[in-house]
Every structure is written in structure tokens, then in C-alpha cells.
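User: Hey, my collaborator sent me this sequence without any context and asked if I could get a structure. I don't really work with proteins. Can you help?
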Amino acid sequence: MLKAQGFSREERVRERKDFERVFREGRCARGRFLQVRFVANGLARSRLGIALSRGWKNAVARNRTKRLIREAFRTHKAALPKGLDLIVVPATNWREPHVEEIASEIVRLLSRATEGRGS
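Assistant: No problem. I've predicted the 3D structure and written it out in C-alpha cell form, which is a compact way to encode the shape of the chain:
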């Protein structure tokens, strides 16, 4: 039961070629707090990647932002469409929303963007 709530290595977009493929071939959905880029990955599960530049605010804010996004994905992955590689890019006007706000925005953007995709 606890394992289902985890965030394993298999649920992460880790390789540069996968990031590049999402940015090159994927679709994009923008919300208030973030931008979600996604493409089908041919797997039974969705994977998450986070794109933040080193110049984005400072290291503390950057790492906290990544933790919040990972937590939102981890706790709401059952509500997300399966078989996607997701790259989340926080908006430049990030004001550190609550995890629930991040999760609901990701779910909303993906469900709207993947309607009619058959997923």
C-alpha cells in the first residue's frame, strides 16, 4: 500500500534524450503556476521531469519548488492519465502555491489537454 504512494526511479524522466523528446515532440498546457509539457511514452505509467534553470531564484527556492511538484505528482498520480512523460516548468511568477493547488492544476491541465487522445 505504501509503495503505491511512492515516487520510484521508474516514475522519473531522467535521461537527457527523454527531456529533449518531450520538448521537441510534446504538447504544452499552461496554467497559473506552471507549464506542463507531455508526450506519450509507451509505458504503463506516467513519468515526471522538472525543468528549472540554475538561475531561477536561488537554490533554496529552486529545491523547495521541485519538492512541492514531486509531492503533488506523487500524491495525485492515480488521477493523472497513464503513459505520459511530463515535464513541469514553474511559471516565472511562481508564488509558492500549496501542494494541493499544484496537483489540481496539473490534473486539470492534463485532463483538458488529453481529451480525445484516448487515454
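In plain terms: The longest helix spans residues 59-76. You can pass these C-alpha cells on to your collaborator as they are.
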